[in-house]
Amino acid sequence: MSLFSRAARHLAPLLPLAMLAAPVAAQQKSAVAAPRHLQTGSATPWIYRGSDVPRDPEWLFGEMPNGLRYAVRKNGVPPEQVSIRVRIDAGSIHEQDHEQGFAHLIEHMTFRESKYLANGAAIPTFQRLGATFGSDTNAETTPTQTVYKLDVPEANPGKLNEVFKLLSGMIREPTLSAKGLAEDLPIVLAEKREQAAAAQRVAQESRKTIFAGQRLANRLPIGTEETLTAATPQSVRAFHDRWYRPENTVIVVAGDADPRALAALVERYFGDWKGNGPHVEPPAFGDPVAPAGADPANPVGETQVLVEPDLPRTLTYAIMRPWRPVNDTIVYNEGLLLDSLAQSIINRRLEARARAGGSFLYAQVNQDDVSRTADATFVSFAPLTEDWRAALADVRAVIADALATPPTQEEIDREMAEFEVAFASQVEQRAVLAGSKLADDIVQAVDIRETVAAPETVLKVFNGMKDKFTPANVLAHTRALFTGAVTRSVYVTPDPAEADPAALRTALLAPVSADSGARLAAKTVSFDDLPPVGPPGAVAEQASLGVLGIERVKFANGVSALLWSNNAEPGRVTVKVRFGSGRRAFSPQDAVYASLGEAALVGSGVGELGQEELDRISTGRKMGFDFSIDDGVFTFAAQTRSADLADQLYLFAAKLGMPRWDPNPVIRARAAAKLAYESYATSPNGVLERDLDYELYGHDPRFETPTPAQLDAATPEGFRRVWEPLLRQGPVEVLVFGEFDKDATVEALRRTFGALSPREPIPAEVLARPTTVASDTAPRVLFHRGDANQAAAMVAWPTGGGVAGLRESRQLQILSDLFNNRLLDEMRERTGASYSPQVANEWPEDVPSGGSIKALAMIRPQDVPAFFSATDKIAHDLASTPVTADELARVTEPLKQSISRASTGNTFWLWQLEGASEDSRRVAMLRSLLNDYTQTTPEAMQALAAKYLTARMPFRLAVIPQGQQLATAAGGAAPAPGGR
């Protein structure tokens, strides 16, 4: 039963796209026989067998004589889309020793060639149907399942019939040829190679320890190089025949179509499917077992210390219990809710201890049923120093207190309020749950062998058991969570002298005294008791923005607001506050405080409210407080609801008008940044995360990841000195989009943002600070300390920025997608040099420069010159020769569908209209949006390529292993410029 599913982000119908472009083509007809195997009437649907959870009436379930099960549902979010999931009950845990990696390899080969799709035709075929590769068309392999995913836009009957036909050929009859194996094997090996080496080693060795003696211990979905390179068409086919069978398959379809028609398509294309050979039972996954002689009262088993010089310290211990299938009943789900509440109380106490300057940066308790292998309670934390024993003792002491003494009813009520608002929000927003999310929920339920429930059922179960949330019951469930067959642990440290497995075992066996100091005393905090931001302001101007019924409100103090009240997304209000000058605001000597601000500005408090008070005042409310720094603006953002909107606006305005400056969040953010810094060097990806923007923008300090020395020099006093004036500077724009009362919101704005003091101007020298993409004749070279066969390469072509060039930036997205397809064909499909090369178009709207088109790939060091050569050739080809009409359609059709679907949600329009309260050009450019992204010509693309891709030398960057030199295109080695 999906008690804890996250609310969908979007979408619901808001604006017919016919207002922006030509209407979609008329639907095609395709006659399909009525379904024969739906489980209707008194028949119990297969997913509810053994359960008393009320059925979700919106789902229809069917089971065919060949054993294949399916679920179908009508859902119009987004309009005209149908989401299809094909789940095979086989993953890496089903592999024999010599087959490790085969489940994932077959996933790739299924897309390579099949009954109705020629070699390499799957991706372009689905692109022509409007599906974007990697988002709308995808697959994933886990230890327990392989899932094929397809979101079909403009899903008329003819298109759906074609898609089901193609999918049936892929799943039932993939070619799995020697040629296909030879083409896909390098791609899979590239995917394996591109995983961060240190993190992957830790994951693999941790799995061996935590799941010792079980199949999961030695079976990663990616497999091993030895087993993958030994694969043959015959051995791959044997795995497929053994597991790709109708009785191991579940098909889920949710979308804007008649569910009976969807059921009929499943039956038409999969009803006559028969497995090859006899049915094979899945292997036993094994149980966690304590070693002989372990103390039954504290059965500590396997422990491991992993030394990784570049990774921060982390310690995990797991209380392991055997996993068993359950009857997914209401009583069982009541137990899950009590388990979850018990964990929430402990986690809140651990967070309070960390905030107060404890011995650990963070700590968390989490129960998880892992891959149908173990029911485990994980305790994970990051010691702040090399004294891991003290940190372990402190974490265990907080847990010991939870095991010894019941929580207070006030603590329980606080967590219950959080649960209630989450479940009530799901009910309010059920009409805007995306079909793709609903389909994924069914797949997840099948994987863990549980049912699904409507949001109303979840809320009803919760409300019906409130009398069971007692201190005694929570204590009993807490104790059960920390009781198991065996406890296992892994400590990751940069210093081999700090610990060994025996020392870790001793520390886990050591007695610990309960620490009640982390318990949070009851404290009432109310918005009614908070001081006003200032005298309520006056509305100076209120008028229509001229599009979508949006109103523009301007207050006497200069604050502007855009309000769009609509009921298309019930129960949801999106709030965004844009202010100040963003990353431009920081001088070189103060740049460290930009990074710290992203982590600590919100936590440092508002008026009389510190971190704990902010948590308390939002208990049982749907509120948020996200903060981000863009090139030209600072942003607060939240998802809230109408009942909480006025208080949400108060928090945002109070942060600007009466900020608090608690030092602890700054100290904690500084410690976290220092611990993370060295880990960036463990892989090419990490180095890019740390240094890419810094290198791209010519060593501009504003884009530098602070070094430990810079962090050491930063202080809470310096933090306040830098941020206090920035919160007072520059215009403020508030955007409120969603279901709310407009008049009440104008009044709330008048008492919050309208009450702010007049804003100080942004200094002229700040506005004049440029953002300039670097250029160099030679590649810039940086070094990582990971595996010797890992590298990264990036090429960036400068473009521009600002509102005036928005229409051209949209055309650049088409050009970038064309480049992306060609780079994918060259580096992935043709040479297998990179698993997922990517081309991205970035155009900052709030500053006049700094945009770029970037091509990036994870590759082997010896392939860096080939990547530079490939990108150079593609750039010049695009500038010298017009693309074909088919190549252009493979880009514009997915773009059209992506935008059409996104445009049915409030958030899309909010993004498009940011800044429009002061810049009317953004409104004017809205009307051409869809055409700008989807209507062009080969000649226009050629002209854009000549303007941006070949007019000047691009910036090139390589990240290679430490101690190596960058190879030249001729195969030699060139001296590598120094990198940090």
Automatic annotation (TrEMBL):
Signal peptide (from-to): 1-21
Tagged with keyword Cell division: no
Gene3D superfamilies in alphabetical order: Metalloenzyme, LuxS/M16 peptidase-like
Domain of life, per lineage: Bacteria
GO molecular function: metal ion binding; metallopeptidase activity
Ranges where the Peptidase M16 N-terminal domain occurs: 78-218
UniProt-listed SUPFAM superfamilies: LuxS/MPP-like metallohydrolase (SSF63411)
GO biological process, one term: proteolysis
Keyword presence, Aminoacyl-tRNA synthetase: no
InterPro entries linked to this entry: Metalloenz_LuxS/M16 (IPR011249), Pept_M16_N (IPR011765), Peptidase_M16 (IPR050626), Peptidase_M16_C (IPR007863)
Keywords annotated in UniProt: Hydrolase, Metalloprotease, Protease, Signal, Zinc
Domain Peptidase M16 C-terminal, residue spans: 231-417, 732-891
Pfam families referenced in this protein's UniProt entry, alphabetically: Peptidase_M16, Peptidase_M16_C
Family membership: Belongs to the peptidase M16 family.
PANTHER family xrefs: NARDILYSIN, PROTEIN YHJJ
Protein name: Insulinase family protein
Organism: Tsuneonella litorea
